[in-house]
């Protein structure tokens, strides 16, 4: 045993200054006994040392190490759970939590499924989430999940119900070995209050560094915007606040700015390349489809605007003629982020929307465009395409131009 301890110390000293020597020592002397000894000292290692040992083990050896540390479910056939727990092996907190459980139940741990499940649930609380993607509708929710890898539903938390249908997945980074860890939530109900609630619940539960609101919006005739295009908000105006005398006078008291780092990198990516759209399916309702990304201010309120020529919304456009889109949850989500930031949550925010309908905004357009549920039918026809476009660009953005490395 003393020789094994001396060998481990020799390897640890070599990892930083002579990594090739460390690899040679470890691979030459690697045995089940050595791996069990590593498990006994696991809590003493630095993260870089843990990564070294894991990177130089095959799957069966990692399984052995994990079992020694109490990770019974690492043998699961489900790749998402197995790989998740392997990553947890480099988390000091995970080891300490396992050690407490082992001391409490010792040999009965493997036989007691309830304790094992409780441990798994606690582990999910320990592992960091990089990004939260908030969606409202089921089409938006599924569009995002379909673009993630290794997605799974996290085990329920005994102290807090799953109020937002949370799903966890990964986005591989083009710049880092470790993937971004993403949680996706769904509100299901439309409107500002719904946007506020789902955003706040998600941030309080998962504490991500960034939140992205992803979904669909109505487009306005600016910058050659078309159905299926993607809009990145540079500001969100809660347009329903104002004063009514004879007519409605909207006031710009609730204008929310987005995170500057996210905005700059998303804008630059959109101008730099168009690979994000290669995975999109061609919609049946359009012969040629090559969506673009447009950056600009977005109006947000509780009303479904099917005719932007109405007296009410014309007042909004008079105050802010550069608006490029209209939606219903952005102001609520942005207000939740502002409140959370005041409570010292370090979280940035941006909104990315696909254009699902184009409500008439110019008086020259015939009245028929807004009648006979034409707008509703157009929205229903383009909802999935617009959701897919927004999700595809968002995930491509995370993979290739996200301003912060994975946790």
Summarize the structure.
This protein has 14 helices and twelve strands. The chain has helices at 2-17, 19-29, 32-40, 47-55, 59-68, 79-88, 92-105, 113-126, 138-145, 192-206, 260-272, 311-319, 330-342, 374-401; strands at residues 131-135, 149-152, 167-171, 180-186, 210-219, 230-238, 242-244, 248-250, 255-257, 293-300, 325-327, 348-357.
Tally of individual domains: 2
By CATH, the topology of the largest domain is Rossmann fold
Topology order in helix (H) and strand (E) letters: HHHHHHHHEHEEEHEEEEEHEHEHEH
Q: Whole-Å distance between the termini?
A: 36 Å
The major β-sheet equals:
5 strands, mixed, barrel
What order do the strands of the largest sheet run in, or round the barrel if closed?
Answer: 5-11-10-6-12
> Pairing-aware structural class of the strands and helices?
alpha/beta
CATH homologous superfamily heading of the largest domain: Nucleoside phosphorylase domain
Uncertain parts: 72-82, 92-126
How much is the average pLDDT? 83
The CATH C-level name of the largest domain is Alpha Beta
The count of helical stretches stands at 14
Give the radius of gyration. 26 Å
Task: Write the CATH architecture name of the largest domain.
Answer: 3-Layer(aba) Sandwich
Describe this structure in words.
The structure is a single chain. This protein has 407 residues and is α/β, with parallel strands linked by helices. It has 2 domains: 2-126, no CATH class; 131-401, Rossmann fold. The protein contains 14 helices and 12 strands. It has helices spanning 2-17, 19-29, 32-40, 47-55, 59-68, 79-88, 92-105, 113-126, 138-145, 192-206, 260-272, 311-319, 330-342, 374-401, and strands at residues 131-135, 149-152, 167-171, 180-186, 210-219, 230-238, 242-244, 248-250, 255-257, 293-300, 325-327, 348-357. A 5-stranded mixed barrel has the order 5-11-10-6-12, surrounded by 5 helices. Helix 9 runs parallel beside helix 14. The longest helix has 28 residues, at 374-401. It is elongated, with a radius of gyration of 26 Å. The relative contact order is 0.13. Mean pLDDT is 83; it is low at 72-82 and 92-126.
């Amino acid at each position: 045993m003393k020789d094994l301890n001396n060998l481990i110390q020799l390897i640890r000293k070599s990892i930083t200054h002579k990594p090739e020597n460390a690899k040679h020592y470890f691979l030459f002397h690697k045995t089940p006994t050595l791996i069990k000894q590593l498990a006994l000292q696991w809590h003493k290692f630095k993260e870089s040392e843990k990564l070294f040992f894991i990177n130089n083990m095959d799957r069966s050896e990692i399984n052995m190490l994990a079992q020694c540390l109490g990770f019974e479910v690492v043998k699961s056939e489900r790749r998402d759970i197995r790989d998740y727990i392997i990553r947890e092996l480099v988390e000091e907190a995970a080891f300490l939590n396992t050690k407490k459980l082992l001391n409490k139940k010792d040999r009965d741990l493997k036989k007691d499924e309830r304790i094992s499940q409780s441990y798994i649930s606690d582990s999910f609380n320990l592992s960091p989430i990089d990004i939260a993607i908030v969606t409202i509708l089921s089409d938006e929710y599924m569009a995002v999940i379909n673009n993630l890898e290794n997605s799974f539903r996290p085990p329920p938390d005994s102290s807090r119900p799953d109020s937002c249908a949370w799903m966890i997945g990964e986005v591989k980074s083009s710049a880092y070995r470790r993937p971004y860890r993403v949680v996706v939530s769904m509100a299901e109900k439309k409107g500002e209050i719904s946007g506020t609630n789902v955003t706040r619940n998600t941030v309080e539960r998962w504490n991500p560094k960034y939140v992205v609101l992803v979904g669909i919006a109505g487009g306005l005739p600016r910058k050659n915007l078309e159905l299926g295009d993607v809009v990145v908000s540079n500001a969100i105006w809660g347009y329903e606040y104002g004063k009514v005398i004879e007519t409605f006078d909207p006031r710009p008291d609730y204008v929310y700015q987005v995170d500057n780092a996210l905005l700059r990198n998303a804008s630059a990516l959109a101008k730099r390349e168009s690979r994000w759209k290669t995975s999109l399916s061609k919609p049946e309702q359009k012969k040629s489809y090559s969506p673009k990304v447009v950056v600009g201010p977005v109006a947000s309120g509780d009303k479904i605007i099917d005719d932007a020529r109405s007296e009410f919304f014309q007042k909004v456009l008079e105050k802010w003629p550069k608006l490029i889109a209209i939606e219903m949850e952005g102001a609520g989500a942005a207000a939740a982020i502002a409140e959370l930031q005041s409570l010292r949550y370090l979280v940035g925010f941006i909104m990315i929307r696909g254009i699902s309908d184009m409500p008439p905004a110019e008086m020259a357009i015939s009245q028929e465009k807004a009648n006979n549920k034409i707008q509703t039918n157009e929205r229903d026809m383009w909802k999935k395409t617009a959701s897919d476009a927004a999700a595809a660009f968002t995930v491509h953005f995370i993979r290739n131009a996200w301003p912060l490395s994975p946790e």
